[in-house]
Structure formats: structure tokens, C-alpha cells
Sequence to fold (272 residues):
Amino acid sequence: MFTYTLFPAILLVFFGGLLSMWVTLYHKPDEVLERIAGRIGWFTLIVYAAWLTRLSFEQRQIPILTAGQISVFLGFLVWMDQLLVQRKISQRMLVVLPLITVVVLLLSGIAAGLRHTTAPLELHSAWSAVHIVMSMAGIAMLLGSGVFGAGSILLRRQLKSRNFGRLFSSLPSMDEMHKLRTFAIYLGWVLITVSFASAVVFMFVEKSGNPSFFSHLHEMFALWFVASLLALSERMHWFSDQKQARFAVATSAVIFLLIAGTVLQIFFGGQS
Fold:
């Protein structure tokens, strides 16, 4: 009961408190409070990791056995990516968007159900666990590129309107936003590429039959294609910086829909 009810409730309280702190910082900037919020963010990640570890030990598999578990696991990866990127470049008020995303994913996971009764047999495979972890880590980074793209759009609008107020001063610079977006896109693409390649290899190496989980390679290929298109457009400079930022936002939305559709198909759509 502790694993499926109290732990998620504690995390929601932590993330809700963090969100309140950052909203307060927007209205009343304070460097000391910002540093405290950063430390609480890391502590929350540790609590999150402890919960998922406990859940993994109880069911002898990482949290991928229900749609709800995948949702909360993705929330963990989004928050971990956020903190790792934060160590590279301070994101200031942009942290609010990942916070909201994590809260939504936690609530969605709780609503969808965390306790598993039956799950596709293929999800119990160690190979599928590796494949899913890499996919979700890549997805988390690509969703992050959408956040940084949205930040660039907001900052550009503030510059055009010559509105150098509170919002403008609370965002990273345009150059930092570009670096954050580029880093998230390239790392996300690498993770998705490795995951896609591993799915193909595992499908041919698997000895216990023809696992239906890896028969869904068309969804994985679609995800890899979209990620590759985004990475290539960034690398080849197909668009201006602002158009590239909009493209990152649009692509992250498409990726979210792809992963949502894949999860629904795995758990509720039957086998193809």
C-alpha cells in the first residue's frame, strides 16, 4: 500500500511545493531561495528514485508493466534530465514547464493505475526493459527540446515588444536557450537511435519465440524518423533560430502523441 499510495502522494506534495517556490521566485526573485529550490529538486529526485527502486524490487521489473507505471517513469526521466541540464546551464524560470509536466505525468500515472495484475509477457524481458528505458530517456530529452524551444519563442516576443520586465529577466539568454535546445535534441536522437537499433537486434536474437512487443517496430521507426528529422534540421540549419524553435515545439508534441499512442496500443489495443 505504501508503494502505490503514500509514495506518489509524497512526491506530489514535493513537486507542488517546488512549483509554488518557483512561482514565488518569479514574483520575488531571491538567489538564496533559488539555491534552496535547486537542492530540494535534487532531494525530490532521490525520493523519486527510491520509490521506483522499491516498486521495481516488488514486481521484479522496472516500472513498465502498466500504462500508469510508464507515465510515472517518464516523469522521473523528465525531472532527471531537467536537473542534469540545469547543471550545464541554469534554466531559471523555464524549470516551471518540466515541473508542470512531471505533475501531470504523476497524476496521469496514478489515475491509470500503478498496481499491475497482468501485463504482456514481453514486458517482463530484460531486453525490453533496456529498450524501453533508452526510448523513454530519449523521449524525455526531446520533450525538453520543446521546452527550450518554447523558451526561445517567449524570449523573442519579449525582445520584439521591448518588454524587458520580470519574465524577460527570469529567462536564460537566447544563446543559452539555443545551447540547451541543441544539447537536448542531439542527446535525445542518440538515445532513440540506440534504442531502435537494439529493438531490431533483440527481435532477431530473441530465442523464446516471436515477441509481440518488438513487432511494433513501425511505431519505433516513426519515432526515430521524427527525431532524426529534428536533429538533421538542427544540424543542417534548415530554418532560422526562431523557426527551429517552433519546429522543436511542434516535434515534441508529435513525439508525445506517438508515445501515448504506442502505450495505449500495448496495453489496451491488443496484439497486432
